[in-house]
């Protein structure tokens, strides 16, 4: 059974990239529904898919993130992975779709969940903004802040992989990927002329698709006057080759096959190399323990 890839809003569930892209599970209104409904929904996902990977933005309402951790704790399940990449919302949606593509392949849940961290390195994400006065995700100079109050000013901002900000103008661009990518443009309250006319050609995008910017984009960027963009690898065979070319290991705590240095499901990191001194445990000899999970006080009415 394929691992379920879940997102926290319908606008993060992008249309399929190809015929193999699996549907996204939308966990809508987690902060407004009764706790027992959230628990039942996750239990149904686990029964149907075995494992669930939830990909969500750092701009998600705090109550939603708290509910996710509460449900995971109540179910006492290491089969639920919560992944919050340091990416703008449109790029989070792109990453979730890439995982939906890979979920159709012969990858174990641990490798699939670990692939999320790997694939972030191949995303170039940013936005065209009408103001940077409330932008706190990328360093902004005092001059840029002052210019943002000038009517008609627009700023091109690259948030990932290396933050950069320039004043948008014809012929002015941002550093792009050095490999072939597609471009997804998320429409907001600004015209997309600079993105489609200047940025896309300079990045030599192999294809262009458009959608609406996610609702969380205005929170992440500090303004609704934006056009969001993300360059990404679209071909499933390339994604699969990237993931399978990385050496796999086995999580020493839960026994799941993973790539990278941390298991996304149980959050365990590899133990120190053999022979490395470890501090003594108060109750006995040194031993590997899983990382502490956040403990939240539960009330009768919610998470």
UniProtKB/TrEMBL annotation:
Highest taxon in the source lineage: Bacteria
Record region (Disordered): 272-303
Biased composition (Low complexity): 279-290
The protein's name in its UniProt record: Uncharacterized protein
């Amino acid at each position: 059974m394929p691992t379920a890839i879940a997102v926290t809003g319908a606008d993060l569930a992008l249309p399929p990239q190809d015929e193999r892209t699996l549907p996204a599970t939308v966990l809508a209104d987690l902060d407004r529904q009764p706790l027992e409904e959230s628990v039942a929904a996750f239990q149904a996902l686990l029964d149907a898919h075995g494992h669930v990977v939830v990909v969500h933005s750092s701009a998600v309402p705090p109550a939603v993130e708290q509910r996710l951790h509460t449900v995971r704790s109540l179910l006492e399940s290491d089969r639920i992975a919560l992944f919050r990449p340091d990416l703008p919302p449109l790029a989070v949606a792109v990453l979730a779709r890439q995982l939906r593509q890979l979920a159709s392949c012969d990858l174990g849940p641990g490798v699939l969940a670990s692939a999320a961290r790997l694939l972030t390195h191949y995303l170039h994400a940013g936005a065209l903004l009408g103001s940077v006065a409330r932008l706190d995700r990328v360093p902004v100079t005092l001059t840029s802040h002052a210019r943002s109050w000038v009517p008609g000013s627009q700023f091109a901002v690259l948030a990932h992989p290396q933050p950069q900000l320039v004043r948008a103008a014809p012929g002015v661009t941002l550093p792009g990927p050095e490999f072939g990518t597609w471009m997804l443009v998320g429409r907001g309250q600004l015209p997309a002329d600079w993105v489609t006319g200047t940025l896309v050609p300079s990045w030599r995008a192999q294809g262009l698709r458009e959608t609406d910017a996610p609702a969380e984009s205005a929170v992440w960027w500090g303004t609704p006057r934006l056009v969001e963009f993300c360059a990404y690898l679209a071909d499933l065979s390339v994604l699969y080759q990237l993931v399978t070319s990385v050496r796999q290991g086995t999580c020493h705590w839960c026994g799941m096959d993973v790539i990278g240095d941390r298991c996304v499901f149980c959050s365990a990191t590899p133990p120190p190399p053999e022979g490395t001194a470890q501090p003594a445990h108060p109750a006995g000899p040194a031993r590997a323990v899983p990382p502490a999970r956040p403990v939240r006080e539960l009330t009768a009415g919610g998470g």
